[in-house]
Amino acid sequence: MKYKYAARTKQGELQTGFVESVSRESAYNTLTGHDLFILSLEETEARVFYQQIIDFFNRVKSNDVMIFTRQFATLLDAEISLGDSLKNLFQQTRNVVLKEAISEISSDIDSGLALSQAMEKHSNIFSSFYVSMIRSAEVTGRLEEVMGFLADYLEKEGSLLSRVRNALIYPAVVIVLFFVVVGIMLVFVFPQLAPIFAESNVPLPLVTRILLGTANFLAKWWIAVLAGIGIIFFLITDYFRSAEGKIVLDEIQIRLPVIGNLYKKMYVARFAESTGVLIKGGIPVAQALEISGYAIGSIIYQDILREVAGSVRGGQLLSQALAERENYFPPLVHQMVAVGEATGKLESLFTRISDFYTREIDDIVSNLVELIQPALMVVIGVMVAALFAAVLLPIFNLTKAF
């Protein structure tokens, strides 16, 4: 199987290419055997469809991963060895899939693999961001600190998702019921009313004509419509899993009016946190930027940080390089970085940047949650009004004709 890699030599030179190997672990060991520090290692061959289905049903809930990470961070902070920590976690975990993964990770570590290598084998459980942060911690020797950060991050992310999910439950139920009613109207009611309207020669409103046409079309082609929706959904999801699709999806996410601002702040917070941890661990700034790029979880920001790292190697100040990319890093970032460069406290300034944008994310999500329900209810009200108008206006016109 072929894997695409990006790595750094001991001299700091960037190397990219492909390596043939029977497994990801074997490819990783081959590259590290050539004294390379692995930045990324991705399978180039698409996974078969049935494997994606298996991964979907064997997924682990984010809450289980969060609890695992918090317990792991607590054990490491208590200075319990990595092997003993994993054995304790294996006994405490109730999720069968996660329990099996912990057992395999423990076995891999006993056989000589690094924790990031062992976790990378379970990409359906641990995200690329998660694994990248673990890899950076292995470089700096601050594993317990990074595990604590990941636990806090997953808790905040879970809290935000829970708030959004709870805000969407009631509108989602109403929308589902609305479309059920529309389906019943299209299948049973409108076919009964159509002959009456046709015989009376009553002029029909536009919305009624649209619904009648939709009803007739679905009656004849409903199988083709369902098949078409399924095929389109599969093609879109498959495209967004490709390398090009991931770039397009990242670009869409950061350019959306409100959501784009949220994603930018989230990526900046990740960048600041991971870069601060790496610099605190003694990693050179340019190398820390590149490693952070792989930890952020955005291909666009990964490429930008690689460019910034190149500028820093060329002698440019980090604050200046970030200031040239204000579309992706707000002015506050390069201003605070400039203060950190002047005072020699760059890592602490990165921590402040991360804290600031984390609070900004909380505020944006809180405002969105407050607006979601009333906005959806207005949309639902308009759709219900249109549905009733499609039925009642022709009947009203019919009674006037008589």
Assembly classification: single chain
SSE order, one letter for each helix or strand: EEHEHHHHHHHHHHHHHHH
Question: Major sheet: size, sense and barrel closure?
Answer: 3 strands, antiparallel
| Poorly predicted sequence stretches spanning 5 or more consecutive residues | none
**Class of secondary structure makeup:** mainly alpha
Strand content: 5-15%
Our count of helices gives 16
Question: What is the 3D shape?
Answer: elongated
CATH architecture of the domain at 167-402: Up-down Bundle
Kindly report the CATH topology of the domain at 167-402.
Receptor-associated Protein
What's the CATH H-level superfamily name of the domain at 167-402?
Type II secretion system (T2SS), domain F
| First and last CA, distance | 77 Å
Would you state the CATH class of the domain at 167-402?
Answer: Mainly Alpha
Helix content: over 70%
The overall pLDDT average reads 81
